[in-house]
Write a structure and sequence with these properties.
Elements: H1 10-21, H2 25-38, E1 43-49, E2 55-60, H3 67-72, H4 100-106, E3 109-115, E4 122-128, E5 131-138, E6 143-149, H5 156-160, H6 165-182, E7 187-192, E8 195-200, H7 205-213, E9 221-227, E10 231-238, E11 250-254, E12 257-259, H8 262-271, E13 284-290, E14 295-296, E15 307-308, H9 311-328, H10 353-366, H11 397-402, H12 428-435, H13 461-465, E16 498-500, E17 504-509, E18 512-517, H14 518-536, E19 541-551, H15 554-562, H16 564-570, E20 573-578, E21 581-588, H17 596-613, H18 618-631, H19 640-651, E22 666-670, H20 671-676
């Protein structure tokens, strides 16, 4: 019987290893940058062409290598950082992967020039697909100069799976940022197609952050540090008001190695409790120094995920460090001891507690009060809305009946009384007998029934032709009798749509009541309008009287160039004005009233986050992102006309029940559910 198991040739074994190590050009940049840092380089230059497809060049002034070391570095499982198995648990260096250079050389044309400072001549090595083409002595500068040409030239299938240049370049910039942030004492520069993207001089971490992300970060940085015998946390956090919706500016480093850790991110967010807007993420660059024996860095192929032997302790220390920084720099809101925080706003000033209790008890015994549903109550303390922001009472019938408005009245106006509620039902007893439908008296009437405008003494024949249900002045709601039971809720009367806390709309329907999330409703409406504009390529643009100049991060600048045509189809008009700078001349008409610079920058940040998380085409991703960004501002007080228009537009959309991301927009409370709340 013939033997069927055999050893693979080195070239094939290297290509298999390259499948794990070299996923895209950014993987090559990461490995080579970490090797340069470990070589004690003080200056590292990265040169990219065509997003790394044609050329990736890393030039450093590090220690360099001898001729033998240069040749050995391309062998599999060859490294200068591990001598015994115990070293695996004491690794503090970065690029220790033994097969990195061998894997890169297996799928690219590699040329390396290296020389030690004490040597007169350096070494040149050329390798193509694991085959050594040349090795000779040359004259070169101290350090190492690595050129990776035509990545995946011998694996065309892998090359075809690469994304567009802008996408691949964004991944390269991500890896560059992580290494540059971890090593602020090293000068870094990045060039793409002969254009300088980053030029970061050596300095402190705070300066590195400002140089990398922009001068606007100078005012929002606050130092964070906590030292314990087990772990040390240090770095910078951002102020709550500078938090962004997109989660792409959060950096954790463990022993100067970038990691992703949702558990620690939760600790940071917990430390900001009460200071962050909903759905926002703060900026932070935090370093964790810990004994390597307490962590396991080999649970993920790219080493971006690690495991602590005592995660709870690290979690607690991280939260304490950030919370201390938040309090130290007065980021947390202070308590106002002079404000009136009484929830019993109906109590007259100066009234004693005993008198208040007595009055309430008398009222509960002598005459029943009209019960205001829990959804109609304003749980917001009086002190939380300044007098200047309060509006006079509306004249809607519902507000009259309830005895108060959702807007708290000014202190100068007397609070409406609810004691004379009986006048609302004058004439009810005389008319009830003539209009009460036949049937079981225990069933009760439909409180959402229509109010007929015919006189109550109308002939009985009219009741036989069409059903009549009595509606009181407390809710003046009407039912469209032509509409029958349907899956889609049917509004009883769009004139009685109530807005609650500038966030929700309460609309009466035939089966009960429907709650509408105002912001999500706008998101659905705007999404369909933006999607139509992108599909038909006729988005309306509003020209700015004064063009706005905006400077972006390089990664967002590259994204804007890639999506330029689609952004212009939406209604944006902008031109390049220099390195990472645009001048905005027009914005979509649907976004008028927003800060143009913030809108443009936040849209790009949201697109970048969605692109990495969701597998969507450009049109879908852009429509979702811009709708989400634009809908945030739609949490203001709406007039009756605006409320009706919003509901009409929502139910004219293709899917009024859910946002593009699947979040519910409407919730129906049937009469049975409402009755169950009082049991």
């Amino acid at each position: 019987m013939l033997n069927i198991i055999q050893l693979l040739p080195d070239s094939i074994a290297n290509q298999i290893a390259a499948g794990e190590v070299v996923q895209r050009p950014a993987s090559v940049v990461k490995e080579l940058l970490e090797n340069s840092v470990d070589a004690s380089a003080k200056s590292i230059q990265v040169i990219i062409r065509e997003a790394g497809r044609n050329l990736i060049q890393i030039v450093d002034d590090g220690a360099g290598m001898t001729e033998t070391d240069a040749r050995m570095s391309f062998e599999r499982h060859a490294t200068s950082k591990i001598r015994s198995s115990d070293d695996l648990f004491r690794i503090r260096t970065m690029g220790f992967r033994g097969e990195a250079l061998a894997s890169i050389a297996a799928v690219a044309q590699v040329e390396m020039r290296t020389r030690r400072a004490t040597d007169e001549l350096g070494t040149l090595i050329r390798i193509e697909g694991s085959d050594i083409k040349a090795q000779e002595a040359i004259s070169c500068l101290p350090g190492t100069n690595l050129l990776i040409k035509n990545l995946f030239f011998n694996v065309p299938a892998r090359r075809n799976f690469l994304k567009s240049n802008s996408v691949e370049m964004r991944h390269i910039i991500d890896e560059f940022q992580r290494v540059a942030l971890a090593n602020p004492e090293v000068a870094f520069s990045l060039f793409h197609n002969d254009q300088e993207i980053y030029n970061l001089p050596a300095g402190k971490l705070s300066r590195r952050i400002v140089d990398m992300f922009g001068k606007s970060y100078r005012e929002q940085l606050n130092h964070c540090e906590e030292q314990t015998p087990y772990v040390t946390v240090r770095g910078y956090i951002g102020k709550p008001e500078s938090a962004k919706k997109a989660r792409n500016e959060q950096f954790f480093f463990v022993n100067n190695r970038y990691i992703k850790h949702n558990y620690l991110h939760h600790a940071v967010i917990g430390a900001y409790e009460g200071t962050l807007p909903e759905g926002s993420h703060p900026f932070y660059v935090l370093f964790i120094d810990i004994d390597p024996s307490h962590i396991d860095i080999n649970i993920h192929p790219t080493k971006t995920e690690i495991k602590f032997d005592d995660e709870r302790s690290v979690y607690a220390i991280m939260m304490a460090a950030v919370r201390k920084a938040v309090g130290l720099y007065n980021l947390a809101p202070s308590l106002d001891f002079d404000s009136d925080v009484n929830f019993l706003s109906g109590v007259r000033p100066g009234a004693s507690k005993a008198a208040t209790v007595e009055t309430q008890s008398e009222r509960s015994v002598s005459s029943p009060r009209p019960i205001t549903p829990s959804w109609a109550s304003n749980d917001k303390p009086v002190a939380s809305s300044p007098a200047s922001d309060r509006k006079p009472l509306r004249t809607d019938a519902l507000d009259k009946a309830a005895g108060h408005s959702f807007d708290m009245p000014p202190k100068s106006e007397p609070r409406p009384s609810v004691n004379n509620w009986q006048v609302l039902y004058d004439g009810l007893s005389e008319a009830e007998a003539s209009v009460r439908p036949t049937g079981n008296a225990d069933e009760g009437g439909d409180w959402l029934g229509p109010e007929k405008h015919e006189p109550l003494s109308a002939p009985a024949e009219s009741s036989s032709n069409e059903p009549i249900t009595l509606g009181s002045r407390a809710n003046q709601l009407q039912v469209s009798l032509e509409q029958s039971e349907q899956d889609v809720p049917v509004l009883v009367d769009d004139d009685n749509i109530v807005q609650l806390q500038n966030r929700y709309l309460l609309a009466p329907i035939k089966s009960g009541m429907m709650l509408i999330d105002q912001r999500r409703a706008y998101e659905r409406i705007l999404y369909e309008q933006f999607h139509t504009a992108l599909t038909t390529r006729n988005g309306a643009s509003q020209q700015l009287l004064f063009p706005k100049t905006i400077t972006l991060m390089p990664i967002d600048f590259q994204l804007a160039l890639e999506l330029r045509e689609d952004l212009m189809n939406l209604g944006f008009e902008f031109d390049e004005l220099g390195t990472n700078t645009f001048v905005i001349r027009g914005v979509p008409t649907l976004t008028m009233g927003e800060n143009e610079e913030e809108l443009f920058a936040n849209l790009l940040a949201q697109l970048r986050a969605d692109t990495g998380r969701l597998k969507l085409d450009k049109i879908e991703s852009m429509a979702r992102s811009l709708a989400r960004r634009s809908a945030i501002r739609h949490t203001s007080r709406l007039s009756a006309t605006e409320r009706r228009a919003l509901v009409d537009q929502l139910f004219a959309s293709t899917n009024p029940s859910y946002t593009p991301t699947g979040d519910p927009i409407t919730v129906v409370l049937t009469l049975d559910k409402i009755a169950g709340l009082f049991r």
